[in-house]
Fold this protein.
Amino acid sequence: DIQMTQSPSSLSASVGDRVTITCRASQSINTYLNWYQHKPGKAPELLIFVAFNLQSGVPSRFSGSGSGTDFTLTISSLQPEDFATYYCQQSYSTPITFGQGTRLEIK
Amino acid sequence: QVQLVQSGASVKKPGASVKVSCKPSGYIFTSYDINWVRQASGQGLEWMGWMNPNNGNTGYAQKFQGRVTMTRDTSLKTAFMELSSLRSEDTAVYYCASLVASVLHWGQGTVVTVSS
């Protein structure tokens, strides 16, 4: 199975801050990497698919980059509604695997 | 568009089993794998296993081997996940998710509470 290592596991930031979350795969996954936002009581929401494609309806302050084994999710200017937990997920091979999550908290 | 509708919340006693259903729409049911993922309170997403609705092939996370069974009813176009020998640590929200074009589309989640 491909292991996904996400960092940091938690992050405190302020509204307006620029935030970067990283995700590393244990082997190359090309660009088969997705990012999800998860809020309590709701299903995870797709933000970025195939490494750098912004899902329809997702604000442009979210962006993704990377290929191979190293990926990043960047939020250019944090908004109050962005405080949530973020997960990377690889779909290069079965089984799919997730990063451990990054909990983004208000400073 | 792709939508997945899951069955409602359950409360079970320790040692019992729970069976959660998942009905996708917006695509041909047999076309895409269905994964099951859970989240216990305060924990991250935990992948449980997958099923190919076309042939019924399954793959389970080692942690759940022997306790989880994923099936489907192609006439109902519905997938099922059954977890047996429930314990308090199985209290969680259970999600089904279809892997369509390399992206997961999620059900709304089913709360399973295990309590005596």
